[in-house]
């Protein structure tokens, strides 16, 4: 049976800040693990967050993104605390597997539940809410994903879309979201009535299962990407970079995976800079294109088209500025590297 590893990088850009490819980048090292919450510097990703960590000693890896719900600012709550706390707790729980989990493989819905429970019990996180898209990728090529809200992911094969996750929404621009209500707001609700209109739990997440192949690419991202880039846009960006950098080869009749793919995903495989791995450059390319589209007042992205559909009188055009967070995983089969 073939065994796979997942070569992972993340890129991000906070709303209102210039995108800096040199600094807005994270390269996953499977030998460096997050073992406790707050054990690393918070990335400059605004109210968005991400995590990547090995799942115990199984050879599997967990990763995902979370998008803090900006509306909590009106209640005096920093939405970034919820999203970043959620990702930290999920990373730590994945590293500690199987402790705290049921027997069998780790399921991302369970990981999301543990992260949510820890955020709920963390007094340092006053309140907030978040969407999330979380994966558990196994060495046998099985990838299970739990998606709650309008973050999401795309599974790309050789220049083709294999799967694109549909968003979970109550209505236009109203995604499913996990929430933690501050004690004061809870007390006001008890006193004056009312309820939190939309508050889901990890149990409400949509779970899908996928089989990946050598050379496949997974792109997980917050809605700062999906509001500005279509699945076809992302395929074009990934395909262009995979072929230009040598990961995929256009062999006239069909695309094939390069015999040098493993080398390209390792530090120093593309250049002397350890940041220039194939997965890092693709993550940067998707983030950079989403950032440019979000600031383009003439290019109508998916969000603009949705506004035009539901609210034609708004005359909305162009992109939607937002925090952006992208995690890219390239699938590499053991034993498929070239004999250099």
Structure description:
46% of the residues are buried. It is built from eight helices and 16 strands. The model has no long low-confidence stretch (mean pLDDT 93). Helices cover 27% and strands 27% of the residues. The strands form four sheets. It has a six-stranded antiparallel sheet. Strands 3, 4, 5, 6, 11 and 12 form a six-stranded antiparallel sheet that branches. The protein has one domain (4-333): Phosphatase 2c, domain 1 (4-Layer Sandwich). It has 340 residues and is of the alpha+beta class. The protein is globular, with a radius of gyration of 20 Å. The chain starts with a strand and ends in a 7-residue tail after the last strand. α1 (79-96) crosses α2 and α5 crosses α7 (278-295). β14 and β15 form a beta hairpin. Keywords: Hydrolase, Magnesium, Manganese, Metal-binding, Protein phosphatase. Belongs to the PP2C family. It comes from Lasiodiplodia hormozganensis. Residues 31-331 form the PPM-type phosphatase domain. Its EC number is 3.1.3.16.
Main beta sheet: 6 strands, antiparallel
- Helix/strand order, N-terminal first: EEEEHHEEEEEEEHEEHHEEHHHE
Number of structural domains:
1
The total of beta strands comes to: 16
């Amino acid at each position: 049976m073939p065994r796979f590893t997942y070569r992972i990088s993340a890129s991000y850009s906070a709303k209102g800040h210039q995108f800096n490819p040199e600094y807005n980048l994270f390269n996953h090292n499977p030998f460096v693990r997050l073992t406790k919450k707050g054990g690393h510097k918070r990335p400059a990703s605004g109210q968005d967050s991400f995590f990547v960590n090995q799942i115990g000693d199984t050879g599997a890896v967990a990763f995902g993104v979370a998008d803090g719900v900006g509306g909590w600012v009106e209640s005096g709550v920093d939405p970034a605390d919820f999203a970043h706390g959620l990702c930290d707790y999920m990373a730590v729980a994945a590293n500690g597997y199987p402790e705290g989990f049921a027997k069998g493989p780790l399921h991302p819905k369970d990981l999301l539940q543990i992260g949510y429970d820890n955020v709920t019990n963390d007094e340092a996180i006053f309140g907030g809410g978040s969407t999330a898209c979380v994966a558990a990728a196994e060495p046998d090529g099985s990838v299970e994903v739990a998606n709650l809200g309008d973050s999401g992911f795309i599974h790309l094969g050789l220049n083709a879309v294999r799967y694109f996750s549909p968003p979970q929404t109550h209505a236009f621009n109203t995604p499913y979201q996990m929430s933690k209500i501050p004690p004061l707001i809870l007390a006001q609700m008890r006193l004056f009535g009312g309820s939190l209109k939309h508050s889901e739990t990890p149990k409400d997440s949509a779970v899908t299962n996928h089989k990946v192949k050598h050379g496949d690419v997974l792109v997980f991202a917050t809605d700062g990407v999906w509001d500005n880039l279509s699945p076809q846009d992302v395929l074009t960006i990934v395909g262009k970079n995979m072929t230009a950098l040598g990961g995929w080869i256009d062999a006239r009749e069909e695309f094939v995976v390069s015999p040098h793919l493993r080398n390209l995903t390792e530090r120093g495989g593309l250049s002397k800079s350890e940041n220039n791995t194939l997965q890092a450059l693709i993550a940067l390319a998707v983030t950079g294109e989403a950032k440019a589209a979000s600031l383009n007042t003439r290019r109508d992205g998916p969000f603009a088209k949705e506004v035009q559909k539901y609210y034609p009188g708004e005359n909305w055009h162009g992109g939607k500025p937002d925090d952006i967070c992208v995690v890219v995983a390239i699938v590499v089969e053991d034993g498929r590297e070239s004999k250099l």
